[in-house]
Amino acid sequence: MLAPTLNPEMTLADEIEEVEPEEVRLDEAMLGYNIYVCGEYAGAIEGVPGSLEHLVVEMHWEGKGVGRTALRKFIELSRAEGCSVVTTNNDVHPAMTHILETEGFEEQTDGIGWEKEVQ
Predict the structure, then answer these.
(1) What is the pTM of this model?
(2) What domains can you pick out in the chain, each with its CATH number?
(3) What Pfam family is a match, any one (predicted)?
(4) Which tens digit of pLDDT belongs to each residue from 42-84?
């Protein structure tokens, strides 16, 4: 999809209601990965394949499927790197808890973090 022409005060988030998987890209960054939608910065993942420390989506991108799509891409990346499990150290935001649950993650037995087998 081509990016729409924007008013200087607007961002792509103002034009997109729901992201398509092919519009979301993860690029390596200092502490993990930056999340881009159609080339526009939309958030970040802190972590390495198999271990997700933190996922944040820019406020103007929230509610558009960016977090869920980025998580799925992180899982694919982890699998491609040979990881059989993806773990998180916590989930501080209720929206993230919902995403983790619906994406098949299970709360770890010690109550700290979540995990999902990705074989």
Answers:
(1) 0.87
(2) 24-117 (3.40.630.30)
(3) Acetyltransf_1
(4) 999 999 999 999 999 999 999 999 999 999 999 999 999 999 9
